[in-house]
Amino acid sequence: MLQDDAMIVRLSISQWTARKFDKGVTAKVASEYAVDDTVGRYNKVLIAKEAIQVITQAVSAARSFHYENTLPWDDGGGRLLPSKNFLDYSKKMRELKERYEQAVRDFLSNYESYRDDAAVKLGRMFNPADYPGRNEIERKFGFGTDIEPVPTSADFRVSLQSSESARIKSELDARVKERVAEATRDLYVRLNEVVGKFAEKLADKDAIFRDSLVENVVELVNLLPKLNVANDSKLEALCTETKKKLLAMEPDSLRKDEVVRAKAAKDAKAILDKMSGYFKS
User: What is the pTM of this model?
Assistant: First the structure.
């Protein structure tokens, strides 16, 4: 059952934007250029970009990992996390959370200094009221993951006529099946995109490519089996074929040996052609 093989995970990250809308400057600009003040807004950058960049990078890394290692589920931010990937996901997410929290601690320790620098750069636009106290700023940062079970029709409890209750439970079961199908399709899309880039580069004998072109394929075909919550045999076969035919050679061989490169490009195209049929099935 899906409920035994996966869970729903929600990632929640918050951070201070370090930006502030300035009504006074906006009105002054509108007056100077004789335009309505609704045609533009002046947002001040309260803290130098470099000061908050490490936090922004940590947030981006966490979100990217979260989306790469989970599957689409609902519109409310919930993502499907297969049990086969739970340990790896949890371990890496703990590391990313620590990276984020360390970046926040470093930022907070230098907050007053950043504010003093901003006072010089902003000149007469500087307003101390734009800068919350350290405790308030700290509360604007947060990082958390919430895990909940995949809902089932058995969880449905309500006083309705038996026929109506059965209908709703059937609809819930159908919705879960649809979401699993969409999650599986997402895996095909990922593989199609990575193999497509591989095929495109290798088909052009003059194109220069980095090792990451191959590394991205390796990383994905190793990840997909852990995300294959539907145990889709076609996807498993595609991953196996991709490993066998596209990853047998080192990047240097693909760069230097035209025969090897041409064969790899041909094999990649064959895999793409085969995959296009799966999308229709």
Answer: 0.85
